[in-house]
Specification:
By secondary structure, this protein is α/β, with parallel strands linked by helices. The protein is built from four helices and five strands; from the N terminus they run ββαβαβαβα. It is globular and about 35 Å long.
């Protein structure tokens, strides 16, 4: 699994793009780095997981989502952009668990919709 993190100064959020088979250790590292940048810049994070394959169990995904609520990872807002047909049910599960852990996170199948929401635009 690989990831890329960048600050989008024009749109005002951190953009984190993942690719490959989901590795919870690497993904946790990316969450921490993106969250640190988000806190520094006072903005949200757009996680693009459209090119990720989720192979772990729902239990693994549950613990990963709960970890998103830890104080060293938490940030103002998070949008997850997933492929509308690939692994969407698993990302919906992640979304609910993370929300229950106190994370302001929403799932989208469109990057522009996610960016609008992060910018304070319309909600899904």
């Amino acid at each position: 699994m690989e990831f890329r993190i960048a600050l989008d100064r024009v749109k005002g959020f951190i953009h984190c793009v993942f690719a490959g088979d989901l590795d919870f250790g690497i993904a946790s590292q990316a969450l921490r780095q993106a969250s640190e940048l988000a806190r520094e810049h006072g903005c949200g994070v757009l996680y693009d997981v459209r090119r990720v394959s989720v192979r772990g169990s729902e239990g693994d995904l549950y613990y990963f989502a709960r970890a998103a609520g830890y104080e060293d990872i938490k940030h103002p807002r998070a949008a997850i952009v997933c492929h509308e047909k690939k692994d969407k049910a698993r990302w919906q599960f992640f979304e609910v668990v993370a929300q229950n852990a106190g994370v302001d996170v929403r799932l989208f199948d469109s990057g522009p919709d996610a960016a609008d929401w992060l910018a304070g635009g319309r909600k899904p």
